[in-house]
Amino acid sequence: MLNRRRFLASASAAAALAALGIAPEAVAAGRIKMGSSEKFSFDTLIARARDMAKTPYNPHNKVPRDILDQIDYEAHGKIRFNTDYAPFVDGPGQFPLTFFHLGKFFLIPVHMYLLDGPGSAPTRAREILYNDNYFDMPADSPAHKLPAGSGFAGFRFQESRLADQQKKDWRNNDWVAFLGASYFRAIGDLYQYGLSARGIAIDVAEAGKKEEFPDFTHFFFEPSAPDSDTVVVYALLEGPSVTGAYRFTMRRAEGVTMEIDKSLFLRRDVARLGLAPATSMYWFSETVKGTGVDWRPEVHDSDGLAIWNGNGEHIWRPLNNPPHTTASAFADSGLRGFGLSQRDRDFDHYQDGVMYQRRPGLWVEPLENWGDGAVQLIEINTDDEIHDNIVAMWVPKAVATAGSNYRLRYRLYWQQDEPFPSPLARCVATRLGNGGQPGQPRPPNVRKFVVEFKGAPLEKLPFGTKPEVVLNTSRGSFSYIFAEPVPNGIAGHWRAQFDLAVDGEEPVDMRLFLRDKGEALTETWLFQYHPFKTSPVYG
Fold it and tell me: Which family is annotated (predicted)?
């Protein structure tokens, strides 16, 4: 652990804090408590994580649990960071830094450090020691009982740009937040939070194992250059199975872009090692919806998984709310990117004031060859929108054993659309219904599928030309297969229809795209159908 000492409100210390952008009045009052100055660099942080992996896990949680349990959802909601104490509020960067308080649902103390220079070279770090004076809270808040130096729960960067556009105080506007375990998220170009990313995923939905949630325990913040749109943050990760060192270079432009450089060290074997994971919520959409399940037409933060594989194929896999937890693997080598997307941007399809139509997508771009592995998609049954039930991640093919280490560089794009869209027409809707034909008896165990595509290649089809439907399935049989323009007057908007007859309850994996004269016109649609007769989702 880094050494800490009580801040002395001397003139030299005040000047040092002012240089880091802490408000002068807070410095002058002597109420900002800082630890002693320690050496820091990204290389030494990596070495620290490597050394920690050689020792048994010790969570080092010395914060009184009985006090944290009293800071429940209601009490935590009344605690707000006082922005008079925000680092960088008057300093060289344009993004003030504020902190989240510990509580019943945020138990692990996180330690925050300010750097006096770039962490890519040897510099100095000083910890901001927790004090309840930093927060506005009721006089009777149980948080007052926490000892000084307890730590924080997480942080966020505020911005004045968004506040100016929305005519709000910047103190109520933030563009990135790290809170809870290794979770973090950012707003996109539609100014809305949605899905989250994670530093790592350990044994998600792995049979016979409990999922592990490693924690970011230390953060280190670089001062930004004047008028910069970029912030750099370093993090130390620790859990029973893994340690890690991270560098986040985060740019606030039209959306948010993060370049991540991380080194991981395994303490013990991991059955399913999820790298660059994203987690989201999918309850239901126009694809399938149980009768009367909710008054809204759709509820989801993301509606599909997009993959650009090493062969150059663009894949769209609509999400499911399955009857039971499922894991799908899309094997690849030389992956170009993947992400969870919210393609449906029509408010009328949601009718909700929480603005699901504005939720950002999250795209992962490897910055080097990740070799052999698979994009894995975990889908968990949910009956409400409060649960994140979707995880997408890269899982290396090689077995993750104790003593293994990994160095990865990748870029995250938080924005409304994929940064590298396919030139082909893309899937815009998937719909299910009873199979058979109108006016005829509906056959049992038959489902009708309608898959819609829209894009330039379909617009360019010669008049009277109908594209070929290329369709495959893992089991079952197809009938009534055809393609036709969607009768809405929009050029290049087509749909493929087919019936699937299948017995039994095992999932069915299907693959479809449209082509003409041997050339693909659309991206590839993949879907997993769960033919459970008693499913509340499928009816």
Answer: Belongs to the OpgD/OpgG family.
Please tell me whether the overall predicted TM-score, pTM, comes out greater than 0.85 for this model. yes
CATH of the domain at 224: 2.70.98.10
Concatenating the DSSP letter of every residue in 77-97 gives: HT-EE-GGG-TTSSSSSSS-E
**Residue 223 included in any domain:** yes
Distances (CA, A) of 457 to 218, 320, 479: 50, 28, 26
| pLDDT digit string, tens, across residues 211-263 | 999 999 999 999 988 778 999 999 999 999 999 999 999 999 889 999 999 99
Query: How far is 331 from 374, CA to CA, in rounded Å?
Result: 4
How would residue 438 be classed by pLDDT, with cut points 50, 70 and 90? confident
Q: What are the structure tokens assigned to 220, written together? A: 């280190």
Which tokens sit at 112? Answer: 């925050």
Look at residue 306 and tell me if it is in a domain. no
CA distance 423 to 493: 15
Element (H, E) at 406: strand 405-415
DSSP code per residue over 249-304: EEEESSSEEEEEEEEEEESS-BSSEEEEEEEE-EEE-SS---TTS-SSS-EES--E
Q: How many residues does the chain have?
A: 539
480, part of any domain: yes
Find the CATH number of the domain harbouring 467: 2.60.40.10
| Among 263, 273, 237, 309, CA closest to 408 | 263
Pair 192, 359: CB distance under 8 Å: yes
Q: By residue range, what is the domain housing residue 455?
A: 426-529
In-domain check, residue 230: yes
Res 290: pLDDT: 74
pLDDT digits over 83-108, tens only? 889 888 765 457 899 999 999 999 99
- Does the pLDDT of residue 25 top 50, yes or no? no
Burial group, residue 11, by CB count within 10 angstroms (0-12, 13-18, 19+): exposed
CA distance 342 to 440: 37
3-state SS string for 188-254 = CCCCCCCCEEECCEECCCCCCCCCECCEEEEEEECCCCCCCCEEEEEEEEECCCEEEEEEEEEEECC
Task: Quote the number of domains for the chain.
Answer: 2
Contact 475, 528 (CB under 8 A): no
Residue written as token pair 């019936």: 499
Tally of CB atoms within 10 A around 347: 13
